[in-house]
Design brief:
Elements: H1 10-19, H2 23-35, E1 40-44, H3 58-69, E2 72-77, H4 80-89, E3 97-101, H5 104-108, E4 123-126, H6 133-138, H7 146-154, H8 158-164, H9 166-183, E5 192-196, H10 207-215, E6 218-223, E7 226-231
Parallel strand pairs: 1-2, 1-4, 2-3, 4-5
Antiparallel strand pairs: 5-7, 6-7
Length: 234
Amino acid sequence: MHDFVYFDNWFDKKYRTKLDGRWATMKMALNLARQRGRDTIFETGCQRMKDDWGAGCSTTIFCEFVERYGGHLCSVDNNERHLKIAEELTRPWEPLRTLVLSDSVAALKKLDKLPGYAGPPGIVFLDSYDYPIGEIWNAFGGKTDLQAAIERVAEIPEAQLLSDFGDVINPCQEHCLNELLAALPFCDDKTVILIDDTSLSGGGKGRTAGIWLCENGYECLLCSQQAVFVKASK
């Protein structure tokens, strides 16, 4: 059983309709971090458009959170152009966030050296390396009838999809797992692991990482467009 300290209604009023499938998971992760007294957030894959609600606008949301409740956001991305965009979008919170140009796995292996580190993090948010769902849809005519392609792919058993498209799916899922394994030595029982794009056909970027977590003492509290993992209660 997990009890939550819910926010002032700013989060619901501003983000419930915009976040759509990510609203409940993002709110849960942030609530847990606040309840547990953890205010450092580490994010892989920064925001790369102003109103990119299809990707969640997480960098802006995390900045607003640390402004309201204290803490620091460190966002890591290997694309300099994306970081420049995120820098402009989050300039009002400049003292509260740091943007790092780096491969995410390499950066997470030195998590305690990244700006804002003050002991085990409250949230580790894994959202780099885009899941190739568009490429899969296109294999089923997505360029001419996207909705039909989405429906067709959704009907394919996961095992078959992983077999047929493993060459494009595996690198993304393995990268997410490697990020997780790099970050975990710096985490503790209070750290929340939040993984994006977990509801996509084939398991999304977090499929392999999620399996590892569930086999190694973690529980998934909520899974939709994102998945929230915490250390299982003993």
